[in-house]
Amino acid sequence: RFTFSLCNKRWASAQVKLVFRMQLNKSQGRGKVIVHWYKRKCRVCEGSTFEEPNFSDDNVKKMLDKLMEKIRFKFYNERHSQTRNYFYFERDMNGPHEEKHCEACIKGICRHGWR
After folding, report:
1. CA 60, 66, 67 angle in degrees (round to 5)?
2. 87 Cβ partners below 8 Å, 6+ apart?
3. What is the DSSP letter of 110?
4. How much is the pLDDT for 115?
5. Half-sphere exposure of 55 (CA within 13 A, CB side)
6. From CA 35, how far away is CA 81, in angstroms rounded?
7. pTM of the entire predicted model
8. Taking the CA of residue 111 as centre, how many other CA atoms within 13 Å lie in the half-sphere pointing to its CB?
9. What's the chain's average pLDDT?
């Protein structure tokens, strides 16, 4: 969900782009994860800036579960689980993806911005 500071409009999105960069330092026996989420601009306000998304507690838990699964697969050679862990959406998310308001599209990261 996005809340835009100029107009306080709230907008739910099923297409928030997150990138997790993972590193394992075997000699220290630990690793780190850097998370970057891409922002959106309000599609109504002229001159709006990119705003950060807000995530529900349920979706944060699911993101962390998926991240842990990827860490176990990538660094510990464990298999992926067979269960699907879908994200929770407050309502139907079949609206258009507006590339000119998506930071990830503008930077060439979002698959919707690929041509």
Report:
1. 85
2. 14, 59, 62
3. S
4. 47
5. 17
6. 22
7. 0.70
8. 5
9. 82
